[in-house]
Amino acid sequence: MNRILRTIVIFLAVLAAAALIVVYGFQIRHVTVEGNDRYSADQISSDLTSTSLLKNTLYFAWKYRSAAASPEAPYLTSVKASIQSPTSVKVTVVESSLIGRVQVDGRNVYFDENGIVQMITDEVRSGVPLVTGVDVGSPELYQKLPVANTSAFRTMLSITQLLIQSDFIPDSVSFDSSGNMTLRYGSVTVRLGQDEYLEEKIANLVQIYPKISSRTGTLNMEGFTGKNTSITFKETGKQSDETEGGDSGETLTGVGTDTGQTDASAGSDQGAGTAENGQAQNAGSQNTNGQGQDAGSQNENGQSQDADSQNENGQGQNENSQNENSSQNSTKGVMAFDSNGTLHYDAHIENGQVVDASGNPIAGCTVDENGNIKDAYWNVIDPATGQLVQ
User: 70 φ, ψ to 5°?
Assistant: First the structure.
């Protein structure tokens, strides 16, 4: 009996010693931080080890064994830890991204891609666009930006994130009472109009801007759809006869437009394409045998053809005909909020479910009886256009 008791006592003593070693021997005294930019290593270290349990090296390393968000440091999107010694750890962090700022009571309120307020400061950080014209209430740190108009909120997040991704940050992004957007780059004003074809507009703006960056005027992209719609630039103080478009301004062409057009500055028009078997082509073009033919010239069989050349099967085609579906804006996904308040930019319908680009169901989003997407904020969105259904 005494031997059994002695064994139990020894076991408990060893267990107690091991517990003491774990509790007191593995205490974090030094944290090495990597990946931080806006926040200091001291602040991150203090926030991440704010409780006695989190000061334990073993527990801390286990909790952040894989990249995960930290409730103790909501300004970090992920934390990954590794043990360097019983008293030190190394953490690799990813700070939340800042995609825009609004000014409230003279202070700058910075928000991330989900509209969560990440900073309220007097500091003006470069590379973050200023948004004006959006009614913002009283923002609180690490809470969703209080914008009453959900449509304006969605558009604000969309345009600022697109500008950040394109690395083409304007001096400001302004909204008018009708939701029309205007960008300002120095002396150039860019009118984007409504929340339509934003990706196409920004892609074309990036290509066009170098041509007008040194000038003063307004670039009108309100009606641009990414097809063969013209873009006009009206220079301030220029006489109408000095521009190609007269009073309407100079016509420019970016990327993603119809292949049958060239930049207006090149001054050349092209036809719908060359004929493959010596059929008639537009004036100045050559057939496959190298012989120039007018639009009304004859083909090898002496048969007259119109400017609209025939295809290989002899079926007439109009030079500007296109497949209607291919000319439409291809929707890879639309914006929708999930039940956690996260904004997804790739929501679409598959097999009667609302899913993201990876095919994962988006919580809180459903398909209504009309085939529209209803997100967690009760926004009803047309899956074909991404527009709110009135």
Answer: -120, 120
